[in-house]
Amino acid sequence: MKPVSLIQFLIEERRAGHINTELSLLIEVVARACKRIGVATGKGALGGVLGAAGTDNVQGEAQKKLDVISNEILLEANAWGGHLAACASEEMEDPQPIPDMYPKGQHLLLFDPLDGSSNIDVNISVGTIFSVLRCPDDVTEPKAEHFLQPGTTQLAAGYVVYGPSTLLVLTFGHGTHEFTLDREIGSFTLSRRDIRIPEQTGEFAINMSNQRHWEAPMQRYIGELLAGNDGPRGRDFNMRWVASMVADVHRIVTRGGVFFYPLDAKIKSKGGKLRLMYEANPMAFIVEQAGGAATTGRERIMEVQPTGLHQRVPVFLGSSQEVEQATRYHREADNAQG
Ligand code: FBP
After folding, report:
1. CA-wise closest residue to 273 among 128, 160, 121, 117
2. Do 299 and 314 contact (CB within 8 A), yes or no?
3. Cα separation of 24 and 18, whole Å?
4. pLDDT class for 275, splitting at 50, 70, 90?
5. Which of helix, strand or coil describes residue 179?
6. How far is the CA of 245 from the centre of ligand 1 (A)?
């Protein structure tokens, strides 16, 4: 098969009427910025990019140098790109307007510039996650409220994994597709079109160290997986946890599986661990477009009406049978409590 570059693929999507020119050019800018982030992460200690930045982000989390570097690379690339009205990031409290000296576009971009920060210094895969929304027509200076659109309104979503190979996984709502960075020519090339996540799986991902803090339905569901062949599920399940959402989700997009970051007593007051706008929503769009499912344990993630730019939600995503079973246990428990 003749290799298809990302640019060719974007032109095909435009010809198919799935995206407009501005959105395809925006994705090119984001992909190019991620190539630069890939180079920076690849340098590691030799580039002096490991370790803490000495600052905290809006969530009160200690920032890594690469969190700050990746954020700046994405801001700079998208400022002059001319396809955005504004952007928002995990690393910034408020949306970043496009400087007046640059042309503005019709799109809003949200991103987690470097997901899996706790793994940077130990050379485990990290990534960038992004989501694209339309800027409301009558808005010239977007504020946070203009980003608070449900996941169902996303025009595009994607992630890049910086691992042994650098991969971009992308959806515009017409399937989910994977591109591998050809380091020799420096361009992303289509490596899998129309990815399908198997409905059934024998593999789950969750941070087991939080078990005692989970709600009862989560205890029940995971308890049954751990009981395996000797329990009501009548088959064994294997566990994986990389603690980089991009890496855990990419494994699921590649061979199936189910990922959970449920509500627990420690994070209940925050509403969850993972952020709705630039982690849960884009991953839900990608997974659903690949035939999987994504809920908060109670409702479809993409139907959650956002109330805050950095809002957190519980995340259940992956192979549909397991997401639906775990969600059913939570709904049954809620109904039983009346
Ligand atoms: P950030 O690194 O972008 O803050 O993301 C949060 C995250 O690292 C996810 O990538 C991952 O799934 C989760 O937190 C790991 O949580 P824990 O440290 O509890 O295992």
Report:
1. 117
2. no
3. 10
4. very high
5. strand
6. 6
- For 62-129, the DSSP string reads EEEHHHHHHHHHHHHHHHHHS-EEEEEETT-SS-EEPPTTS---SEEEEEEEEE-GGGGGGT--EEEE
| Alpha helices, H only, 131-214 | 144-147
Tell me which of 57, 211, 214, 244 to substitute to probe ligand 1's pocket, judged by most ligand atoms within 8 Å of the beta carbon. 244
CA nearest ligand 1 atom 16, residue: 243
Looking at residue 12, its pLDDT comes to 98
pLDDT digits (tens, 9 = 90+) for 102-160: 999 999 999 999 999 889 999 999 999 999 999 999 999 999 999 999 999 999 999 99
3-class DSSP assignment, residue 239: strand
Output the CA 116–ligand 1 centroid distance in Å: 5
Question: What does pTM read for this prediction?
Answer: 0.97
Instruction: Report pLDDT digits (tens) over 18-45.
Output: 999 999 999 999 999 999 999 999 999 9
Atom 3 of ligand 1 has which residue's CA nearest to it?
115
Length of the chain: 338
Q: What is the distance in A from the centroid of ligand 1 to the CA of 242?
A: 9
Helices (H), the chain: 6-15, 21-43, 65-81, 144-147, 216-227, 245-255, 281-289, 320-337
| 313 Rama class: left (phi>0) / alpha (psi -120 to 50) / beta | beta
Pocket test for ligand 1, best of 61, 117, 160 (most atoms within 8 A of CB): 117
Residue type at position 160:
V
Q: How far is CA 202 from the centre of its chain?
A: 23
User: Max alpha carbon distance in the chain (Å)?
Assistant: 66
Residues in contact with ligand 1 (CB, 6 Å cut-off)? 90, 112, 115-118, 207, 243-245
Q: Encoding tokens for residue 231?
A: 């329990």
pLDDT tens digits for 181-213?
Answer: 999 999 999 999 999 999 999 999 999 999 999
